[in-house]
Design brief:
73% of the residues lie in helices and 0% in strands. The protein starts with a helix and ends with a helix. By secondary structure, the protein is mainly alpha-helical.
Length: 119
């Protein structure tokens, strides 16, 4: 049951991220993820790559929770994956809603991590 919760949350945030990214780019926002920026012109390529990334992420979460019986640290992998998927989804929703983005959700996951570890 626990693994289903984390996987479902990850997939829901991935869907929100994909849809808000797609609509945001169509409205004139720029995709800052270089891996996806090249695929944004093709709906099939864009959503296909999102689907692939989401499947891999869900698999990592499921495996990490099975490995939790060896070490509780593996739960942190699942939680971290969900958080790292939630940040860009929430960021996109705020940007599309015209709400000023706070300092912690200032850009993409990379920028947040950079601020945490460098700044």
């Amino acid at each position: 049951m626990k693994s289903k919760f984390y996987v479902i949350m990850f997939v829901l945030f991935a869907i929100a991220d994909a849809l808000t990214t797609w609509f945001g780019v169509k409205m004139g926002f720029e995709e800052s993820n270089p891996l996806l920026a090249g695929r944004i012109s093709s709906g099939t390529g864009f959503f296909g790559s999102y689907g692939l990334y989401t499947a891999v992420g869900a698999g990592v979460i499921a495996v990490s929770l099975r490995l939790e019986k060896f070490s509780p640290a593996f739960r942190a992998v699942a939680i971290g994956m969900v958080i790292l998927k939630a940040i860009p989804a929430v960021n996109n929703i705020l940007l599309l809603a015209g709400i000023p983005v706070s300092g912690i959700i200032n850009s993409t996951v990379g920028a947040v991590l950079e601020n945490l570890f460098i700044g």
